[in-house]
Structure formats: structure tokens, C-alpha cells
Amino acid sequence: MLTTIKEAAAHVGQEVKLGAWLYNKRSSGKIMFLQLRDGTGFIQGVLLKNQVSPEIWEDAKKLTQESSLYVWGVVRQDERAPSGFELDVTKIEVIQVADEYPIAKKEHGVDFLMDHRHLWIRSPKQRAILNIRAEIIRAVQAFLDKHGFTRVDPPILTPSSCEGTTNLFHTKYFDEDAYLTQSGQLYMEAAAMALRKVYSFGPTFRAEKSKTRRHLIEFWMIEPEMAFVDHEESLKIQEQLLAHVVQSVLDHCQAELKTLDRDISALEKVKAPFPRITYDEAVELLHKEGFADFKWGDDFGAPHETKIAESFDRPVFITHYPTEVKAFYMKPDPNRPEVVLCADLIAPEGYGEIIGGSQRIDDPELLEKRYEAHNLPREAYQWYLDLRKYGTVPHSGFGLGLERTVAWICGLDHVRETIPFPRMLNRLYP
User: Fold this and answer.
1) Under which EC number(s) is this enzyme classified (predicted)?
2) What is the pTM assigned to this prediction?
3) What structural domains and CATH numbers belong to the chain?
């Protein structure tokens, strides 16, 4: 029966059949070591010349990197093996002897590897990253499902911008203008008025001409929205969600974290509650740390977020940003209207903002004024105003950027490795 490398532990002492690819091979004349991978893991197959037919030995000699084959063998426990098991090979059946593999066992430049991204994702490190990405997605959805959220899928084609910005990808929708979504948030607010607690999970697009290690053109967002939830309660949900996600990765992805040489002691500190500082306090901290030219009302850039994060051993909330630097829908603090009830969650180790959220304006008249102040097109946003006319309630929400979260948890230098096929400023291939 065909099984997998991941299930090898359940078959110690038994003969199994694997479908695999050859990752590497070495031979000492009468013994051959086949490094095999099957998408679920890696295992070493040991082939003894005097225990197999000459035909099988010759077939094994012909195998090249990434050749595909079926392998039969007895699973043997071996503490020296990375996986704890080896396979004493009894038979192989070659499916294909692969052409010379372009990604050799040597250092390649990033551009070369990105041009061959369709092959690069087969490597142990890239496979580990994608497994951790999948675990993060699973953990997020499990947490939200457990806490009564309903998944709702917003449209990808929209008639306008969510935040009133110009960083949009334009397309024609028959005889109308349309844009690729930069957030599903506004639609989630509508869904929350129907289902109370909702979330979306899908791709979003930002036409920013940025080349930083934190930016992608296409990325994935988890966007919960909650009726009858204020700013304070939203912060608690955010920190509980992220602490759950990190713990889930620690519980289920130890092998992958080891492959990435990730310092898990930093992740083990991610426990709720998280520290909080106000925007005002963050500005004071920056002034003390040498950013004397940073003025109240400026938005934080990567160097500022990194410096703030260095003062804490876990993610930190920065709350109450100036009203003028945040989106039109964020609710001003009733006690201090020049700031809004919002927070950005900054990851440790220089990874920047991974969650942004706020309490939304629920006053119809105030939202009308914000429309006018931001010169928003009424015809595109009338439906959003309707939400405040027909049963308005206090409500809050946030967006978690998947790729930045993956980059931080994996300890990566760049977000381009956090998604199978990244879209960046100068890359649309493969």
C-alpha cells in the first residue's frame, strides 16, 4: 500500500511503498544512499548492492536530482537520522529520470532563485516556510471559528478604494471603472451588521512602488469585523488570536522551525497581554532614541517601528494615532478628537506592523463630515453610509497581514519567501 514519509513512524519494521523524488544521492561502491522527499517529509533510503537485483542497482545509478520514482523498503528506526527513521530499500521503479536540475547544490543569487520559484519551493527551507504558513492559516481560522466568527468572502473587484488612496490597480468592468481590492473591510462591516462577528480571508492588492523587505504587491489578509465590540475588547481579541497562532506553530512545526534555524525562545515570549503605548509615548521614545526630527503628526516608518519594538520582548500595540494620518472611518476618541481609537501591532525583531485595527465611526453625521473632508465620491460609498442609517451600532475590526506574520514567525529577511509565487514591483513571473 502506498504511504508517505510523514507516516513512516507507524510502519517501523514493515515494508512500505513510497512515491518520491530524489533530492540527493551518494554512493560508496557497494552501498547507495538515496535522499528522498515526497512532499510530506524527507527520508534516507539505503540501497545495498548485494541485496537487490542488478537491474534495480543500475536503475538507481541513473537517477538524477528530482527524478521521480516508486520505492519499496523496510522502515527502520535510526536516532542518527534527521527524521528518526531510514528506509532499507528493496526495490525501486523509476517514473522519470529528470533533466539536469537548474538549482544545483551551490549558492544561487536571489534573482535566479526567484526566476525558478516553481522549483525553488521544493527545497527544505522553502517547504518549511510554506508548511508554517499553512499552520498559521489553520490556527487563525480555528481560533475565529471557535470564537463565533463567520467567514464571509468580499469581492475582489470594487468600484472604489477602501481607504481613499490612489495606490490601486485599475481595470475596466465592461463600461465602468473598477479596481482590485486593497481591503475587504468595508464589506465586512456590512456583513457584521447581518452576522455580528465575521472575518474574511483573501488576496488584496496595493499598487505601491515599494521595494522594501516588508512589501508585496499581492498579499493575503485576515480581516475580522465585530458588531457591539469597542476598541478595548478588539485589542484583547487581537492579542489572544496572535498568541494562539504562535503557540500553534510552536506545537505543530518544531521540525520546520529547526530547518529554518529559528530562535524559538523569542516566540515563546509571545503571551497575552501585550504591552501598549500611545502614539504620544512612542514619539517621546523616538526623541529619546535619537529621532529628534520626528514630529507629532508624522506617520511611523520602518526605522521608527523597529526602534520602538526594540524596547519590548513581544509584540507591542501603539494606540491613539493622530486622526489626520489614519483612514476616514476610524472613530475619534470622544475625550480627545484629534486622535482616533485605533492601534497598530508591531512585531519584535524589526518586522514592523502585522495588525492594524480600530473602532469604526458609528455616528451617521460624523461619517458624513469625514466623507466631505476626504473628498470621497458619494456614488461609490452611499451603501457604506447606509450602514449608519439603518441600525448603527458600535463596532470594531482589524486586519492581520499574513505574509508579514509568516516572515516574523519564520525569522526571514524578506517577505518574498512567505508566499508561493510572490508579486513584487518588478516581478510577475513565474
Assistant:
1) 6.1.1.22
2) 0.96
3) 2-96 (2.40.50.140), 117-418 (3.30.930.10)
